[in-house]
Amino acid sequence: MWRAVVSQPLDRSSETQQLGEIDAAAGEFWVRSVFQMPQLGHNLSAFEANRLFMNVDGQRFLDASFASQANIDSDSRSVIAGDLNADGDVDLLIGSVGGGPLRMFLNRIPNENHKVRIELQGTVSNRTAIGARVVLHCGARAITRDLFPANGFMGQSPAELLVGVGQATIIDRLTIRWPNGEVQELEDLAVDQNIQIVEGREGYHSVSF
Asked: With 99 labelled, which of 80, 113, 116, 160 sits at a CA distance of 20 to 30 A?
């Protein structure tokens, strides 16, 4: 791996002596000044293992990198989060520098809570319904989600909403404000479903996870 030491002040005249033995076979290197790295052909890419953090009760994050096997060191740059196998859980698709295979990490974490996946299709609005706002009413709870797929470096997540509803067993009312401003409402929707809704069309199509 690599070691970094920063002296003060940090400028092009700064130099730091080597602190110990270097394992070149493991990719270690040392430069007296970090400003010399480009001239010597060194870079720190591919030395940072990926990290995966799991939210615990909405209060803290647990480093699950090793247990998930997502802590690969292939200099990953793009990540897409989405329900890639249509089972209601968020999966990851990882792309790395230099080409090579895309890596898919399927979510196998046990979860007793309920959720819905909502796919919107615009007719008057844009077809993927980007900019729509969806409100799920479950008892006294209202859950609001806006449809803006995340755009990262060299990747874009699917135009869908995967919404956790906790222990709720039914969605009393689902309200959609389409990008053109029109409002559409549906009532009494089952949870643990993939729900497909077309703008301006009565009803919806659903498939269980």
From this structure: 160
